[in-house]
Design brief:
The complex is a heterodimer of chains A (351) and B (70).
Chain A (H helix, E strand, L loop, with lengths): L3 H20 L9 H11 L13 H17 L5 E2 L3 H18 L3 H9 L4 H21 L8 E2 L7 H15 L18 H18 L3 H11 L5 H17 L17 H18 L3 H9 L3 H19 L11 H28 L1
Antiparallel strand pairs in A: 1-2
Helix pairs in contact in A: 1-8, 1-10, 2-13, 3-7, 3-8, 3-12, 4-11, 4-13, 4-14, 5-6, 5-10, 6-9, 6-11, 8-12, 9-10, 11-14, 12-13
Chain B lengths: L1 E4 L7 H11 L5 E6 L2 H12 L2 E9 L2 E8 L1
Classes of the chains: A mainly alpha (351), B alpha+beta (70).
Chain lengths: 351, 70
């Protein structure tokens, strides 16, 4: 069956995601690329939100797992230069949107499979955002063309990951570790690293992408990647039901809020940015590991976005999204509209 | 033989551009595509469109696909 690799990856994400929550990660947060990059920004002291500071080994594992498998299969190809500044901005905006919703698209599925109906609102927003992104593609949005780069450049990101791994193991005093809150809820380092390595390797092979499944289904009627999305949901749902962790409803969900408009718009921002950047936050981590330096820049954009979000009060909390965050989400939509459709303005002026 | 170079483009641009050529009837079509997801996606598109695909490595992470009517 031609979908087996992406379905297998989805099931692995679901099972390992649940295992990570049993081993210590916050509820419905076995994996969350946005949350974990935000925690890393905090661990490095780039923001001082004391409850979300930890150098998440899952992120390290995802990148290194993708790199190792890509090296073995000959797919480690160092390339970049497809408008990296724009990719930085897209990563930044992706994070602003994700922190308004409180999760990346991957966590959105895990939340949904835990019974969190706010994630259903988020899913509607995500789909709406992807449709806007598709409209931008159809209108002629040009993401730019990557060219081959020096092989050594491709190892910059893995070396950064190894430095982070050393820091989380050695705990030097300039690295921050949350003592309470989500950042203090952590699976053992080696378990988190191993889960990341496995999912990184599987996701590299299967090209799993949360945005890609919905995008391709609408754009070219190809639901291939959507099978991965569905597999994560089903595996996690079954796991939650077996473990009696399924709790259907809007209110009182873990690390979530119930402001429907901002859940919708936050994920819409992520959806648009993910289509314009060529993949969801998880996919960016995998591409970064296999030598795509534009994806590395996108990941840096997400980390910087997380730092800004917490320094300037743009991130939501379980109480909801504050005024700063609301302005940031609306501004993000404006910026994304300019990035996605700006070429049309230029065309009209010339004609 | 029609030719198109979609190397270095991020998803889903390679598939969109190749689909445009297929829909316009520009066959047989020679596609230069990067290894990894783009290569697989273009192959899947061609196979789903009922085309025959042959491929050759062109070096430096690039493959040359030839799409012809089956």
């Amino acid at each position: 069956m031609k979908h087996k690799s992406v379905i297998f990856t989805g099931i692995a994400v679901g099972i390992l995601g649940i295992a990570l929550t049993i081993w210590g990660n916050p509820a419905n947060m076995g994996f969350c690329i946005a949350c974990f990059l935000r925690d890393i920004a905090g661990g490095l002291g780039m923001h001082r939100a004391a409850i979300v500071q930890y150098l998440r080994p899952e992120i390290i594992g995802l990148g290194l797992g993708a790199m190792i498998i890509a090296l073995f299969t000959g797919e480690f190809k160092v390339r970049g230069g497809a408008n990296p500044l724009r990719r930085l901005v897209l990563g930044f905006l992706m994070m602003v949107g994700a922190l308004a919703f409180l999760g990346c698209p991957l966590r959105m599925i895990l939340r949904l499979a835990g019974g969190d109906l706010n994630a259903l609102i988020g899913l509607f927003g995500f789909i709406a955002g992807i449709l806007v992104g598709i409209a931008a593609l159809k209108s002629g949005y040009n993401p730019g063309r990557a060219v081959p780069q020096a092989k050594s450049t491709g190892f910059v990101y893995p070396v950064i990951l190894l430095a982070l791994l050393a820091a989380v193991l050695l705990r030097p005093d300039f690295i921050f570790f949350s003592e309470s809150g989500p950042g203090s809820m952590t699976a053992p380092i080696l378990a988190a690293l191993a889960a990341g390595l496995l999912v990184g390797a599987f996701a590299q092979r299967s090209r799993l992408c949360m945005a890609g499944g919905i995008r391709d289904t609408f754009l070219i009627k190809d639901p291939h990647l959507l099978w991965g999305f569905v597999a994560i949901f089903v595996a996690t749902l079954v796991g939650n039901l077996i473990l009696n962790k399924f709790n259907l409803g809007f209110a009182g969900q873990p690390v979530a809020h119930t402001q429907h408009l901002w859940n919708f718009l936050g994920m819409a921002v992520v959806g648009i940015a993910a289509v314009l950047a060529g993949g969801c936050p998880l996919r960016q981590l995998i591409l970064a590991g296999e030598g795509d330096t534009d994806a590395v820049v996108t990941v840096f954009g997400m980390v910087v976005g997380a730092a800004f979000a917490h320094n300037f009060g743009l991130a939501a909390s379980p109480a909801g999204l504050g005024i700063n965050g609301r302005v940031a989400v609306l501004a993000s939509i404006v910026v994304l509209a300019i990035i996605g459709f700006g070429h049309r303005l230029g065309r009209n002026k010339q004609s | 033989m029609h030719k198109i170079d979609v190397t270095g483009l991020s998803c889903p641009l390679p598939v969109i551009q190749v689909k445009k050529e297929i829909d316009a009837g520009n066959l047989p079509l020679q596609v230069s595509v990067s290894v990894g997801a783009p290569r697989e996606n273009v192959k899947r598109l061609a196979e789903n469109s009922g085309l025959r695909v042959t491929e050759q490595p062109a070096g430096d992470g690039v493959f040359t696909l030839e799409l012809t009517k089956a």
